[in-house]
């Protein structure tokens, strides 16, 4: 079965850190650009960060720049999102997406809650 599986979400206090993982199953991520998106209650899904196939190009939303870091480990078929200095407004369901020409996969999402 071809799927993406996110993990690493949870409840964290403001200022804390989490590392999200996006693991591919049934296919290799080597040829896919991968992005992280999030959706807070009552809001539209928004892009958070993305990484190119080679890993040499990374982009971040303005709201997370300097706090979040995206990386990939093709040997583990996994993309990561390191989230530091978390804020309550980072609370959302986080999704990963793998994209290449004519092919696109979404994960089921992982909940991140930032609250004291």
Largest sheet: 7 strands, mixed
- Considering DSSP H and I runs of 4 or more, what fraction of the residues is helical? under 10%
**Span from first to last CA?**
39 Å
Give the structural class: mainly beta
Query: Can you give the mean pLDDT?
Result: 96
Overall morphology: globular
Q: Which stretches are poorly predicted, pLDDT < 50 over at least 5 residues?
A: none
Order of helices and strands: EEEEEEEEEEE
The tally of strands reads 11
* CA-based gyration radius: 13 Å
How large a portion of the residues is in β-strands, by DSSP E?
Answer: over 45%
Number of helices: 0
Report on the architecture of this protein.
It contains no helices and 11 strands. The radius of gyration is 13 Å and the shape is globular. The termini are far apart. The protein has 116 residues and is mainly beta. Strands 2, 4, 5, 6, 9, 10 and 11 form a 7-stranded mixed β-sheet that branches. It has strands at residues 3-7, 10-12, 18-25, 33-39, 46-51, 58-60, 68-73, 78-83, 92-100, 103-106, 110-114.
């Amino acid at each position: 079965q071809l799927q993406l599986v996110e993990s690493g979400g949870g409840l964290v206090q403001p200022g804390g850190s989490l590392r999200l993982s996006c693991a591919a199953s049934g296919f290799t991520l080597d040829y896919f650009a991968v992005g992280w998106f999030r959706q807070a209650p009552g809001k539209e899904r928004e892009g958070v960060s993305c990484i190119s196939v080679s890993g040499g190009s990374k982009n971040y939303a303005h709201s997370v720049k300097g706090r979040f870091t995206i990386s990939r480990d093709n040997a583990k078929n996994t993309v990561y999102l390191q989230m530091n200095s978390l804020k309550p407004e980072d609370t959302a369901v986080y999704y990963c997406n793998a994209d290449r020409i004519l092919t696109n996969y979404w994960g089921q999402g992982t909940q991140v809650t930032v609250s004291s």
